[in-house]
Amino acid sequence: MAIFTRIQTGLRNCATHLKNNYGKYLAKTAAVGALGLVGYDAHVYGLMTADSYSKSRDAKRLVKKATNTLYLDNPSAVTADMKDEILRIEAEQNTTTFFNKGIGYMKGFFRSLVYNAVPFALGVVTLLVSNKTICKIGGWGLVAYGAFKVVKDGFGKGAPRDLVHRYK
Known about the structure:
Layout: H1 2-20, H2 22-70, H3 77-92, H4 95-115, H5 117-128, H6 132-154
């Protein structure tokens, strides 16, 4: 019977604690959601940047190697065949693509974190701070920023409309 009494007392204390700190936990939930959305956005942007970065770097590398095959310092069939073989080897290898994709992903990921600095900072502060008042302020800041983004980007209010003539 003592076990049931302890469980009942623990549940009562937990309910009282949640009732007194519900705003703090709601704010932390909003912070986790915001950080999840920012992280997903950064991941997708990192993937897109990885592809474009690696392809552009590979293209630049191959253009340089192909240009090298066009010119000879002196007329030599051996040197011409060597340059052509090096171009073929460079065109078939993919190790630099692997590393360039990693570099491009990191660039895109961190660039996206900079683009989303406001929700990222609000989410981190709200999640890591234990002060109830600061948590609530951060949570309300996240709600306000989310509402602003929905109105501005979702509904298009306040965004420039370049396709509409300004003197219409």
